[in-house]
Amino acid sequence: MAFEDIKKSRRFVEAARRLVKGRYVLRSDNQAAFEAIEDLQIQLNEYFSLQGAELVIEASTGVARLVEVQDFDYQVSFSAKKTLNPLESVICLFLRQRRHEHITGKDVVTESVVVTDDDIWNFCLPFNRQKIVKRFRTDEFDVAISSLREKQVVSQNSDGTYTITPVCDIIIPHDLVSNYLEEAKKYFASRTAKDLPE
């Protein structure tokens, strides 16, 4: 099939739409969509390269995404860059640690890593920059979790728990976690009345 015909096909249009609509396409969320992007990688890359973007497929983690080509005169507006605030960053550090520990464990049966509100809360508590714990939880914690769901870092399960997605691997390479934790301790040191963890 010629490239022009492929571009007009429903499968190509749907694959391109998914990449443009969301920052990431996850195999764990939609295997058929991820496989379509893999199958059409050459054509999609050619299509998006004309708009200043490059398709990156990370088969090991099951993530497909578009990245901007920095030196291009104009760029496709597939997604605004999202910056994590300090609390979201701390939560991501916890999620990345937990995912790494699970995947490198001896008895790994599934790649899925599930955490609860309490798991995340207990890790974040020492970084609390407000004096009233209840206010911190309602005003900052819940908003941060909601934002990370929107950014596809976690997905919420029917029982209220969260599955950590491979997007975490992209945001924070594991070898940088300890460095970022030190930065987080310094950032929150003057903003909390609690001792930070060693």
Automatic annotation (TrEMBL):
Superkingdom: Bacteria
InterPro entries on file: JetB
Listed Pfam families: DUF4194
UniProt-recorded name of the protein: DUF4194 domain-containing protein
Native organism taxonomy: Bacteria, Pseudomonadati, Bdellovibrionota, Bdellovibrionia, Bdellovibrionales
